Amino acid sequence: MERRQQFHHSGVPYLMLAPQILIITIFFFYPAAQAVYLSFMLEDPWGLSSTFIGFENYQMLFNSSEYLKSIGFTLLFSFTVALLSLALALLLAVKANNIRRGQSGYKVTLTWVYAVAPAVAGIMGSFLFNPHFGTFTDMFAIFGWDFSYQTSAFDATFALIIVSVWKQVSVNFVYFLAGLQSISHSVREAAELDCPSDRRRFWTITFPLLAPTGFFLLVINLTYAFFDTFGIIDTMTSGGPGGSTTTMVYKVFQDGFIGADLGGSSAQSVVLLLLVLALTYFQFRVIERKVHY
């Protein structure tokens, strides 16, 4: 008669995971559940009373031209920042990987930007794009561009994209450079023998091998563009001019913390969560299928 081996499970792994699970529950699951609950309520600004109103908060959102405008700007801004950050970082990583001397100094120069907080990056951008004494503003004036991010929606969007891309390029650069250096020397030698064209060799050999790294960075960059650019927007434009640079995250802040509309801002946070989940699902179900590990 065959005897089945029995293994005794220890409770130590669960005990080690308990602090992390507790932190996630307190700072993620509970606030998320509270937001879903408040999105169906009409809350007193002082928190003294609440009335159940069903889906009225959601109906008001999608009947609001300002909120629909913030959705459009969020999508445009996020995808532009993500794609430009990835493209520029990949270009810099390829150039850095070809450097034989002084590579360490080159890498440090490109990665130190990651230590700058988003709010500080926004303040630096305010000085660089200042209408009166900004370095970039003076440079644009040479070409006849009367740049003013405080009054022009296009100029404000352009300035935010530039600062946001600059802030994110460094971390993308590190990952892409690590991916390039992980390609074996034998593969590179074989590619050089089979394909003398550098450009064709990059797109047919190197780029497909970087696909897993690129897919990971695409997810990270979209998350950054959706959420971590809050500090840049708050310190540079505060959602202006005329609400033209208000993202969905900043709209939640404006309506919830400044406008004291707890029910409406909670509904916005739920919509934002669902949108991010849908984009993440699309990335893993559609884009990841084209990635070869």
Give a quick summary of the entry.
This protein is mainly α and 293 residues long.
Question: Please, could you describe this protein's structure?
Answer:
The structure is a single chain. The protein is an all-alpha fold and 293 residues long. Strands 1-2 form a two-stranded antiparallel sheet. A hairpin with a 6-residue loop joins strand 1 and strand 2. The longest helix has 33 residues. The radius of gyration is 24 Å and the shape is globular. The two termini are 44 Å apart.
* Strand content range: under 5%
Numbering strands along the chain, what is their spatial order in the largest sheet? 1-2
Q: Could you tell me how far the N terminus lies from the C terminus, measured between alpha carbons in angstroms? A: 44 Å
Whole-angstrom Rg: 24 Å
Number of strands: 2
Which SSEs are present, and which pair or pack?
Blueprint: H1 12-38, E1 41-43, E2 50-52, H2 56-62, H3 65-97, H4 103-111, H5 118-128, H6 135-142, H7 153-181, H8 185-194, H9 198-209, H10 211-228, H11 230-236, H12 248-258, H13 262-287
Antiparallel strand pairs: 1-2
Helix pairs in contact: 1-13, 2-13, 3-7, 3-10, 5-7, 5-11, 7-10, 10-13, 12-13
